[in-house]
Q: What sequence folds into this?
């Protein structure tokens, strides 16, 4: 039998730290995961968890001279960290594309929308301006913008928020990238538009045969679309597994906290929405042992040693970083998610 | 010259690179800004230089009396001084481009006539120091006046809105539409044609009074400060804490002073050093054109004007006051940059997600 | 867009009218000053005083005086200088205008090129010693009074180093019209150009650098990088293009002020017979008709240029175009 194809993207023990006057900020402290062809990966975490920095590092978009990178990012087998800059530019936008949170400020206000999409095309293909413009208009149609020929000549401020994000997606997919990274694509949008954009991404990923990495702080956003989900906390992955596993058998107390704080229609109504007490830890001086320990209502003495990310009780390919015994965990868990007992 | 219109960000304390959240617990934004400024060594050096210049200029009478032993305002056409042990006349025969007439002596590099004499036999160094007094008084005075007036008017306009705002803003637009130098020139010309001075009701103003250039320059720059301050007042007014104060029943006057003023003050404070630099340059230009400071008073600008005829024979007369201006304005510019960085740190701590 | 322009033009006319009124008020109605004495210049003879009274209709009402002044200025154009009865004011201004234009346009070309170069270099070389060094030079440029710098330049080029190969080509102070002798025109203007530009290079380099640094943090620059654009293209097409909006509008205002007579200090120091020098000479003798005329000319020109800049700004920044 043929060996399985190598993963499209493999991140191995990525570490990103920043040298500041106060000390070394470890924004990303050993993150590893893989992404296969056509797969949708969701990365979930609160602000400061390191999720954006991880993804920006994949495209080497971090220009800070104080940044230090360790580890490897293998794209189709080659380490992105070692690529010469001109080769990296070919990858950016051509093979791996990224869209960002706020579509209003992510588009240049003085150029027309179609011109900006055409720019993305012409950077990677020598096809001539007219052909690029035609393709840009087609892309706008594909992302659901009505009257694309007319709207192509509009400026970004003439588009609504949802339309702008669609245009960004069009621009990102213009060169048929293998991977689309979406960094909080819906956070700046209204809730109804959020759903539309997520549906659009789900549809397009099949049309363009791209893998997708979706970064968000909101588990609800990835619930519909992701194949696998990784939960990040304080610069590390604390849980990683398939969607069903994560939603129906979450192993890490932080994930429980995230799940508990989603208002659910299919559960008995809670008195108060559960929130996770405390604040994220300092990335300069992380606490010894499990990083979630100060906020974890179930911490015990073993938590003073840092758990490694590995398969414990959640099933094959479901990894977590928690010492709690999986069997006894489950009973506690449901109470925690429902907001009762020790959850504070 | 159209200065860069200053558009400040709302007064907020963001973290500048290298600052930790620990330092900020429980301290007022002013103290924090003060500390940030104090740590900026270049700005502190500039401040020291400026203070030095001010001190030296205001010590002009002491210099003239005790060190140089000259009277910089009295003509000394027939005076003598001692150079290298020999007595020489202050105004010497010969010299000049046509080798006719008289040429004052050049720098002696001694206490008496350190930089030489001017056409009237006066000690240049002492005059430069006295000139500094006038230039600095006018520069600082007009900048402060302009800022105060603009602050007051902007508070009124921004807070009360409506017809008050429309009237004041149109007035400011009109003054500003009149190019600064033209306005200053016109006012100065008109005010200076009266040889016996001006009579404004009970107040008599002498034509050589420093108040005339001070008021003219202040008037001309009020719109420049008014605009950004008014913008700030408008945006602060919309903020939630003002609404909260209104809900608590605070009166308009109290609101203006206790809530809006402190926030708007940042804008003015950042502009102040740069305004002083600008007014000093403006005064120098007006005085150079003979429509600024009038004799018997002297300022850096008038001395440069005096030095024009002596430019090729005794260049120090024109060069020395210019150097003083450059140093003063430079130190104010650097200080202004430092103050702006301290109160409005632009760099944000860039660690998202 | 057309409506926008029409509205601007109407506003313009209103402002111009207001300026003439303001000028009139300053010269004729400042409290505490007698306009007859102002207009007659320093030490007037009784005949001059009587002539002034008559010419300006000072015995009539203020609005009539205003209309009379406007008429003499614009319609009959026979306003005559008091220092020199043969000098007709309006033709004198029109003769002086090309000189001022030559000075300002030449200096502007130099300062635009140099400041863009300096600003961009400072940003590209950020982190090395060149960035603060360039900015210090810029700062010094802003801190020098332009008339003083001109004097220093004259000292060096006309006198001290005049006999050396460096500056022996510098002609004596003065002006040669372009149409008469282009090479001499150029030689007469090169030092004044550099002097005038020095101040503005400093200012604009700093402004451009600050703008570029701000823009570098903008999200759309990040997007451009994520699209795979080269750094050069990001700098020119994205960063510079958006920074130019502020740059051009500031430039427009400064240019307008200079052409309107703001270059007077430079003209005085270098002996260039432009509008500024005309203003200066009239200031020295308090020749009010000339001063008034030059002030109004200057204000007009500047206000018109402001309106042009506004329209230009709308062309550059699509966000503020009326849709």
A:
């Amino acid at each position: 039998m043929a060996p399985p194809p190598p993963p499209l993207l493999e991140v191995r023990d990525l570490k990103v730290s920043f040298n500041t006057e106060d000390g070394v900020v470890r924004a990303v402290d050993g993150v590893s995961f893989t992404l296969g062809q056509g797969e949708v990966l969701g990365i979930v975490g609160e602000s400061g968890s390191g999720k954006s920095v991880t993804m920006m590092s994949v495209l080497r978009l971090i220009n800070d001279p104080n940044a230090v990178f360790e580890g490897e990012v293998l794209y189709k087998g080659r380490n992105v960290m070692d690529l010469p800059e001109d080769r990296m530019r070919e990858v950016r936008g051509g093979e791996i594309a990224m869209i960002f949170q706020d579509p209003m400020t992510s588009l240049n206000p003085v150029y027309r929308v179609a011109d900006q999409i055409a720019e993305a095309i012409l950077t990677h293909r020598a096809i001539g301006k007219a052909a690029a413009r035609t393709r840009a208009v087609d892309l706008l149609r594909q992302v659901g913008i009505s009257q694309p020929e007319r709207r192509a000549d509009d400026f970004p401020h003439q588009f609504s928020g949802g339309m702008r994000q669609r245009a960004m997606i069009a621009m990102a997919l213009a060169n048929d990238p293998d991977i689309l990274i979406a960094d909080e694509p819906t956070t700046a949008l209204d809730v109804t538009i959020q759903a539309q954009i997520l549906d659009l991404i789900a549809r397009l990923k099949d049309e363009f045969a791209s893998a997708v990495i979706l970064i968000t702080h909101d588990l609800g956003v990835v619930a519909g679309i992701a194949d696998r989900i990784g939960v990040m906390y304080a610069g590390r992955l604390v849980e990683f597994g398939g969607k069903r596993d994560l939603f129906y058998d979450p192993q890490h107390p932080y994930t429980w906290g995230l799940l508990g704080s989603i208002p659910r229609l299919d559960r008995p109504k809670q008195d108060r929405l559960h929130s996770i007490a405390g604040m994220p830890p300092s990335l300069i001086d992380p606490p010894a042992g499990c990083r979630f320990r100060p906020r974890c209502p179930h911490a015990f003495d073993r938590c003073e040693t840092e758990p490694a990310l590995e398969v414990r009780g959640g099933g094959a390919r479901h990894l977590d970083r928690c010492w709690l015994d999986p069997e006894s965990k489950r009973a506690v868990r449901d109470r925690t998610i429902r907001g009762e007992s020790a959850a504070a | 010259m159209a200065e860069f219109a200053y558009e400040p960000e709302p007064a907020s304390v963001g973290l500048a690179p290298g600052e930790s959240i620990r330092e900020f617990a429980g301290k007022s934004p002013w103290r924090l800004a003060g500390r940030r400024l104090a740590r900026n060594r270049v700005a502190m050096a500039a401040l020291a230089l400026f203070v030095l210049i001010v001190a030296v200029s205001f010590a002009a009478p002491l210099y003239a009396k005790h060190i140089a032993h000259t009277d910089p305002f009295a003509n000394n056409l027939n005076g003598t001084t001692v150079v290298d042990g020999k007595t020489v006349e202050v105004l010497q025969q010969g010299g000049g481009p046509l080798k006719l007439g008289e040429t004052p002596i050049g720098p002696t590099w001694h206490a008496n006539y350190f930089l030489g004499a001017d056409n009237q036999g006066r000690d240049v160094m002492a005059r430069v120091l006295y000139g500094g007094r006038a230039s600095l008084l006018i520069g600082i005075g007009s900048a402060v006046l302009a800022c105060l007036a603009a602050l007051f008017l902007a508070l009124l306009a921004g807070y009360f809105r409506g017809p008050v705002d429309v009237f004041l803003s149109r007035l400011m637009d009109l003054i500003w539409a009149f190019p600064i130098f033209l306005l200053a020139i016109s006012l100065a010309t008109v005010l200076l044609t009266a040889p016996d001075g001006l009579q404004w009701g009970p107040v008599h103003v002498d034509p050589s009074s420093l108040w005339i250039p001070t008021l003219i320059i202040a008037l001309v720059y009020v719109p420049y400060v008014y605009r950004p301050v008014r913008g700030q007042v408008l945006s602060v007014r919309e903020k939630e804490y003002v609404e909260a104060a209104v809900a608590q029943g605070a009166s308009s006057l109290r609101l203006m002073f206790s809530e809006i003023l402190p926030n708007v003050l940042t804008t003015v404070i950042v502009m102040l050093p740069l305004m002083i630099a600008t007014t000093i340059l403006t005064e120098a230009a007006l005085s150079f054109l003979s429509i600024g400071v009038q004799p018997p008073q002297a300022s850096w600008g008038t001395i440069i004007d005096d030095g024009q005829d002596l430019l090729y024979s005794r260049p120090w007369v024109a060069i020395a006051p210019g150097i003083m201006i450059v140093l003063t304005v430079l130190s104010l510019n650097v200080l202004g940059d430092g103050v702006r960085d301290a109160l409005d740190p632009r760099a944000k701590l860039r660690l998202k997600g | 867009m057309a409506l926008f322009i029409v509205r601007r033009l109407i506003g313009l006319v209103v402002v111009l009218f207001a300026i003439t009124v303001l000028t009139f008020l300053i010269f004729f109605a400042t409290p505490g000053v007698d306009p007859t004495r102002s207009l007659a210049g320093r030490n007037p003879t009784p005949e001059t005083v009587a002539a002034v009274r008559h010419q300006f209709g000072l015995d009539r009402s203020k609005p009539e005086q205003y209309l009379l002044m406007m008429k003499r200025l614009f319609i009959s154009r026979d306003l005559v200088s008091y220092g020199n009865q043969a000098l007709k004011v309006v033709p004198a201004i029109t003769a002086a205008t090309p000189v001022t234009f030559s000075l300002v346009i030449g200096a502007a070309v130099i300062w635009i090129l140099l400041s863009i170069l300096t600003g961009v270099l400072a940003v590209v070389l950020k982190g090395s010693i060149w960035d603060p060094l360039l900015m210090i030079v810029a700062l010094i440029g802003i801190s020098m009074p332009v008339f003083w710098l001109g004097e220093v330049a004259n000292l060096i080029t006309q006198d001290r180093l005049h006999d050396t190969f460096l500056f022996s080509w510098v002609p004596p102070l003065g002006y040669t019209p372009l149409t008469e002798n282009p090479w001499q025109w150029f030689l007469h203007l090169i030092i004044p150009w550099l002097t005038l530009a020095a101040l503005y290079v400093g200012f604009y380099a700093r402004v451009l650098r600050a703008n570029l640094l701000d823009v570098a943090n903008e999200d759309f620059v990040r997007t451009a990088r994520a699209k795979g654009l080269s750094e050069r293209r990001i700098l020119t097409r994205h960063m510079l293009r958006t920074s130019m909006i502020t740059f051009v509008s500031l430039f427009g205002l400064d240019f307008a002020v200079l052409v309107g007579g703001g270059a007077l200090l430079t003209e005085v120091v270098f002996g260039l017979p432009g509008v500024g020098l005309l203003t200066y000479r009239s200031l020295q003798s308090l020749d009010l008709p000339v001063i008034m005329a030059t002030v109004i000319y200057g204000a007009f020109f500047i206000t018109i240029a402001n309106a042009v800049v506004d329209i230009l700004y709308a062309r550059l920044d699509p966000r503020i175009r009326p849709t």
Remarks:
- The mean pLDDT of chain C is 81.
